[in-house]
TrEMBL record:
Location in or out of the cell: Cell membrane
Keywords: Cell membrane, Ion transport, Membrane, Nickel, Nickel transport, Transmembrane, Transmembrane helix, Transport
The family this protein is said to belong to: Belongs to the binding-protein-dependent transport system permease family.
Pfam families reported for this sequence: BPD_transp_1
Species per Swiss-Prot/TrEMBL record: Macrococcus armenti
Protein name per Swiss-Prot or TrEMBL: ABC transporter permease
CDD domains: TM_PBP2 (cd06261)
Length: 200
């Protein structure tokens, strides 16, 4: 569930984040209208707690997926929430690239698109990997919450066999599994970011 969601979220969120940056004031595709809509969409949805977002989106999920329960029904809202988070992460990391790098690329005659795709994104890649790691950790949390609406996984196990049956051991085991998954994810993300940064 997490892997599939992350795949689709990156496919949507990465270009969305690039578009968010490119349409900002003074950038290559400056467009106040598009940038304003994207910012409003992200700023509206991101603060909503995922459990509320998941439930509120049930009618839309049922219409698009054909059901409101199960793994695929959970993947849709998870992908939507993660995509917007990734878009903001991409924008923030590209914006944070040293302006001197941009000026150097301009001095060498690079086009604005070359600066965006061959300079800014590679420069921000290490931070982007860490950002994706953070998103993956959030998706592990989302997948646990999605278990409450029949999506299966660790959340379903904890809720059905732990909480509803008052089995403290099951609850403890699921919490430990979640912690281990998060630690492994964070370690892998940090490792890849470090490897990429050291290659620059």
């Amino acid at each position: 569930m997490v892997a599939i969601t992350l795949f689709f979220a990156v496919l949507i969120g990465l270009p969305l984040g690039i578009l968010l940056y490119a349409t900002a004031k003074g950038n290559i595709l400056e467009n106040k209208f598009v940038n304003g809509i994207l910012n409003a969409l992200i700023n509206t949805i991101r603060p909503i707690p995922f459990i509320i977002f998941l439930v509120a989106l049930i009618p839309v999920t049922r219409f698009l997926v054909g059901t409101s329960i199960g793994i695929w029904a959970a993947i849709f809202p998870m992908t939507l929430a993660a995509s917007l988070s990734i878009a903001r992460i991409v924008e923030n990391n590209i914006v944070s690239v040293d302006k001197g790098v941009i000026e150097a690329a301009e001095a060498m005659g690079s086009s604005k698109f070359d600066i965006l795709f061959k300079v800014l994104i590679p420069e921000a890649a290490g931070a982007l990997i860490l950002g994706l790691t953070f998103t993956t950790v959030s998706l592990i949390e989302f997948s646990a919450v999605a278990g409450l609406v029949g999506a299966g996984g660790i959340g379903y196990l904890a809720f059905t066999y732990g909480y509803q049956r008052f089995d403290v051991l099951i609850m403890f085991i699921t919490v430990v599994i979640l912690i281990i998954l998060v630690q492994i994810t964070q370690f892998i993300g940090n490792k890849f970011a470090s490897i990429y940064t050291n290659r620059l």
